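[Meeting: bench + compute handoff]

Bench side (C.D.) handed over the final construct sequence. Compute side (W.E.) agreed to return the predicted structure before the next meeting so the bench team could plan truncations. Sequence as handed over:
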Amino acid sequence: RSLLQSHSSYCSPRYIRLAPTTQLYINTKEMSEDVTTTNSATTDNRTVTILQRGPKHIVAWKPPAVVCHHSGWTGSRAKLKRGEEPEIPMLQRVRDALHDIDTRSVGEQEQQLPVRKVNLIHRLDRGASGCLLLTYADDADDDKSVDSNKSSTTATLIDALQSPESIKTYVALVRGEGILRGEDFKEKGWFEVSRPIKDESGVEKDATTLFHFIAGQPESTDDNGVINRARMSIVLARPMQGRWHQIRRHLNGISHPILGDTTHGHSKTNRAWKETRNLPGERICLHLARMQIPPNDEIPEGLDVSCPLMDDMLEMLRVYAPDVLETALPKLKEEGILLDADREYEVGKYTIPEELLEVQLKNQMLNDDGKAEILLQGANFVVADKPPTVVPHHSSWTYTRSDPRRRWKEPTPMLQRVRDETGGKRVNLIHRLDRGASGALLFAFAQDNNSENSEKASCSITKALIEAMQSKDATKTYLALCDGDGMWNGADYLKKGWFTFDNPVPDENGKYIEDCRTDFQFIASKTMPLREGDADEGRKITIVLARPHTGRYHQIRQHLSSGTLGHAILGDSSHGRSRTNRLWKKKYNLMKERVCLHLIRLQVPATDYTDDIDVSSPLPPDLKKMLRNFPDLMEQARPILAKEGIIV
């Protein structure tokens, strides 16, 4: 099997070994938000895994829920309209990944490599996964369709893939135990299904697919009639042609639709698997596990490449059909199907164009539901979780209330959100957070409908909470992600523990304020390796805890970016480094207009109207997404954070 051989440069960032999964994940939300699985084609950090490549061909590992290329069927801008990360098709991902790999491989004098275009040789449905064959689009292929250029490498490989000697072996998870009208498909070995299929235009064409039902299980229920084992089977499929949805339609024709197939499957079954058995959304349980192409002019040695099963399908089998998986293992091995990757693969990064990220952010703002998450509420106060890019209240910085376009320029302020979330009660802000920051925000209720002197009482509550917040017994603990490695001007701040920094800062008008103190603790740092041709910026990150004693203008931000500490907060466009911020937005998912400063814990002493307040705000999704790029950084930080009463 001509798979990519192992390389001595195993530790190089150019290669990655995908190890077997060691833990089962039962909760779908936790899988999607907090877990980076192993047989996942490494898509969480914008990378592409290359299974094999030669002078004229590339085989990439396509994950589910990614289109091969944009077309009228894909709705290429739908995710942007929903405010989600824009979808980058496999065509562009592979192109960028190959350029990234090659750029890191050449010498310093050859850095200016052109970006080589690639062409698809075949396609996989958006919800499917597995081997995807591409070729380089040389100058002769540029701007020419495959049909009009039959002498090209692209056309040669298309013909080779369509030849009778080529074999594409898919693995499918289907509904049903492998029995239809008394006939047990599992006893038939490989058998043929020949049934004409209409293409997208309605034209009927011949279609033949070979199937092999290798294992299955019937449905069973407990004593209360609740299903505790769903009927399902593992099927191998080899299409002889490449008709529209050929495998999916043929399997549905023999009453064994593929799990997750919303077009030709069973909607009730799909809902049950998604709601109770961790079937991911936009996933069709169809995986191109092995591709074999005979020798041809472009690949003289031929092609035989396998793509390990994806984690999502494996986990479904391991948890909900372990006996089926065990029964199928010998046959899968016999057919050359890999369950776990056992070698090293090339891995390259792809990028998202800046203009698409800007559209994404705009649509996130337009689609904001304007609601507030309440962290803690008492009779006279409420603490809400402020997301980034949302202002605490409108001011001259956010356009006047009379501006008819204001609502399109700014999301609903926190003041209005909390009012609406607490049943329409007016609230007063006790402190503020910068627009780009996030975290716990304290409010006092501005009225008490049960009190005759509600207005006077609300003023007393607000004043008491403000004084408590400003007292020496109050503690606001911020978590900041900073540009730096913990070292500055010969000082190692990671070894200093908590220390107080007292340095004057200018206010909004440029006047320096003398009494300005902040406690800092630098707790963990990481420096990414310097690649050839890369700038030195954007390679360092440090997690810092900050506790301000005073509340001056941008106090924490100005202190951290000062010449003494030299660790500007990532995303800080006023006091940080613009080039570094651009690089973090491009490479590591830093949101636009985001300052990586989060008020993670708020402690306020008791007043005449309130008890002690001690509330924590969880890390928001955008910071979690950034930190998932550096799992070892979080491992360093967790023990220290836990000592401070902070759980992340």
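W.E. noted at the follow-up: The CA atoms of residues 99 and 172 lie 33 Å apart. C.D. will use this when planning the next construct.
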